[in-house]
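User: Here's a chain of 267 residues. Predict its fold as tokens.
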Amino acid sequence: MTLVRAGDIELDYERGGSGPPLLAIMGMSGTSLHWGEPFLELLRRDFDVIVYDHRGVGASTHLDGPVTIAQMAEDAAGLLDALEIDSAHVLGISMGGMIAQELAIAHPERVRTLTLGCTYCGGPGSEQGPPEVMQRLGEAMLSGDRARALRAGWEANVSPAVAADEDSWTRFLAIAERRSVAVRVVMAQLQACMAHDTSDRLSRLQMPTLVIHGTADEMLPVGNGRLIHSVIPGSRLEILDGVGHMFWWEQPERAAELIRSHAAVPA
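Assistant: Prediction complete.
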């Protein structure tokens, strides 16, 4: 990873692969490691892939106080500026999808294509995670028991079948041990997500947009993907049956192929 000045902060980023640039924006409590090497290696075959850690995460600038989704979208634009990239294909998942929405609305000329995965637009018809899931996650995070918090987060982010797979859990746990995100940062990100609302602005988007959502998503139910698709003109919707929130982790080959075909990269 390498630090670069992005506006008034520094972001820790990694770049690899060949082809047109693809900016991948991670979700709440995640790090660039949470994309997983299987998925990134597939993307790097077709794209110059840029991943990074949000402010407050890893070696990126310390977060002291609140943050907004719009601020994080400007961070992403600042990273493109720092890397001298005029425009890129943009992939955002969960909170990263909210950031990608704001980036595309504020800077449409910077976004060649937009892929929004397992995300949320706010406003009428949007659905947050079921109260029992949010309660379970909150209690685990505030318990002070890091192992409990990690396991609860894992189980809420993947389908039951994957949650029970010990090899997948071991890989996820190893990532968490390499780079953790402070609870205060996760709480600030959560507040930013709760305030997010692009529902009355998404209809402005004109770039090709792909919406991906799994039917077993407990964090942000699949109705959110259908809603976003309904308000972005000409968007394409891909529903992944039986797949949880971290669809790129559960089905990296399919996820990478969807993004490749959406960006119209030759096979």
